[in-house]
Amino acid sequence: MSRRTSYLFTSESVSEGHPDKVADRISDEVVDAFLAADPYARVACETMVTTNRIILAGEVRGPAEVIESLEDRARAAVRAIGYEQAGFHWRHADFACHLHSQSADIAMGVDASGNKDEGAGDQGIMFGYATDETPELMPATLQYAHNILRALAEARHSGAAPDLEPDAKSQVTLHYEGGRPERVTSIVLSTQHREGLTPAEVAEIVRPYILRVFPAGLVTDETQWLINPTGNFVIGGPDGDCGLTGRKIIVDTYGGAAPHGGGAFSGKDPTKVDRSAAYACRHLAKNVVAAGLAAKCTIQIGYAIGVSHPLSFYVDLHGGSDIDPARLEALLPELIGGATPRAIREHLGLNRPIYARSSAYGHFGRTPEPDGGFSWEKTDLVGELRGAF
């Protein structure tokens, strides 16, 4: 059966001030705090935020004194996002920490000992994806949805748009023709704002920032604009909706354009393959597309808890390449040391405090940073892949 080439597709994004993203940010601040003190610390931290409350829970293994710093880090994160509202304020919110020691049974399976290599921190399936629809090699619908919210957040933080508040959601629908993005059929934006603004006034503020996000010609006179379609969005953030770590996994990855293994990223140290192996899958898929071997690439790796080597490694080139996927299935794991948890961490340099910055606007499609942030976005394997094929 031939693949459809003419269709509509939609992806959404949420801002750093969305309640679930506030929770993700705080959980990743906890990861960074422990990794800064001990690169081999173990962290599995969940955060809940609601009306003037911040609650941490989970399991950790690392320097005990880090626990004492977490309240200050959580409040600093909320302040950086911009919450100084009556219902959620970085200074006045109640803080509770219920982190405790990691299970000895889990540690026994994951830790390296004797002739046993470090095992996966859990069982599971992880996916990575890349497509040549955008320069970032990400699905266009998701990349544009992220870019809209990032542009508005920058305007809010700079003071250029002082009437906007931190909580926001975006959604972009594209019409694809010949399998390529042809035009924007609808743009949805709901953004928290100060009391007294009408939807028309909000639309006037945000429209110029949104238009700058799209390449020329994608937005047309027929594009449907839905700005604050409920009519009012003053009460927002954790005061309007409880936030939890890990509830925006499709926003964090590929906007629904590719499969997802189901595990969240934020709050987890890099021994957890939910995070590190998903980063490795993206790294490999992106390099395949960047090398020109395919227009799209999906990769899946399967793991068992406590076992170092993957149970499976699968490559799908979506029928758009003459390359035999089986050859890539044999080659790609070897480019990252067999895709064991330890090899992934070492290849990508993941035992560093680089995670809080990834908690909003997607873990993928970002620019690699000098200190190792977003290392999984590097295209350092392109030369080897082109040479091999």
Task: Describe this entry's structure for a reader.
The structure is a single chain. With 389 residues, this protein is an alpha+beta fold. 33% of the residues lie in helices and 25% in strands. It has 11 helices and 13 strands. It has helices spanning 19-37, 65-81, 104-110, 140-158, 199-213, 237-240, 249-252, 273-290, 325-335, 341-348, 382-388, and strands at residues 7-14, 42-50, 53-61, 84-85, 88-89, 94-101, 124-131, 164-177, 180-193, 219-227, 243-244, 296-303, 312-316. The strands form 4 sheets. Strands 1-8-9-10 form a 4-stranded mixed beta sheet, covered by helices on one side. It has a 4-stranded mixed beta sheet with strand order 6-3-2-11. Strand 4 (84-85) and strand 5 form a beta hairpin. Helix 8 (273-290) packs across helix 10 (341-348). The longest helix has 19 residues, at 19-37. The protein is flat and about 60 Å long. The mean pLDDT is 94.
Helices and strands in order:
Elements lengths: L6 E8 L4 H19 L4 E9 L2 E9 L3 H17 L2 E2 L2 E2 L4 E8 L2 H7 L13 E8 L8 H19 L5 E14 L2 E14 L5 H15 L5 E9 L9 H4 L2 E2 L4 H4 L20 H18 L5 E8 L8 E5 L8 H11 L5 H8 L33 H7 L1
Parallel strand pairs: 3-6, 9-10
Antiparallel strand pairs: 1-8, 2-3, 2-11, 4-5, 7-12, 8-9, 12-13
Helix pairs in contact: 1-2, 4-5, 8-10
Give descriptors for this structure.
single chain; 389 residues; alpha+beta; four-stranded mixed β-sheet; 11 helices; flat
